[in-house]
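Section 3.1: Structural characterization of target chains.
Under the original work plan, the team committed to producing a structural model for every single-chain target entering the pipeline before any wet-lab resources were allocated. The record below documents one such target. The sequence was received from the expression subgroup and is listed exactly as submitted; it comprises 229 residues.
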Amino acid sequence: MTMKQLIVLTGAGMSAESGVKTFRDAGGLWEGHDVMEVASPQGWENDKSLVLEFYNQRRRQLLDVKPNQGHIGLKNFEKNFRVQIITQNVDDLHERAGSSNVLHLHGELFKVRSTCDENDIQIWKKDLHIGDLCKKGCQLRPHIVWFGEAVPMLSKAIELTQKAAVFVVIGTSLQVYPAAGLLHYVPHGTPIYLIDPKPTISELAFPNLHIIKDTASNGVKELISIINL
């Protein structure tokens, strides 16, 4: 029997229990920085050293954290479903938990790319400095989708979402686009589950939406019982 396609969209709340800081606080700051200083092409042009050091700190932090029970629970769904994770997170905690299929919408912290060839992408787990160059002699930059940049993986994410038999959202408010727009591509009649301790929408927002008001770890555990693994 063919296994059903389970699509999971994850955001910052997925990794919060692992100690990964959420993207920005209520004041619009990220680790004390205005996000446009460290996550935009303009910020990069204004102060490359600041941007590089900001991501160096994030990279170092990521080396010190581990997947939580939510990440591990999603891996376990692969016993009964064809699982595809679409994540807004730039960490590698889904991969470390053992998930087989992970699509990163906003890039990956442990990768860098050339500033003159966007297809020249390298694994990078150490600090990145001014003067670290690609083979063409161009400065390397974080492999992160910044504000104002295109989201190259979005079309693939839409294509995957259109095949969902079950669609799950964990740790994202569904108010940040373009990722939130994926809900509009879920096939008609497909059950949608939102796991969030403080949801900002009601079950009336989308057809077939079911809200689990809990953390990622507890919510994934509850979801397992709901969809009868």
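Residues 9 and 169 are 5 Å apart (CA to CA).
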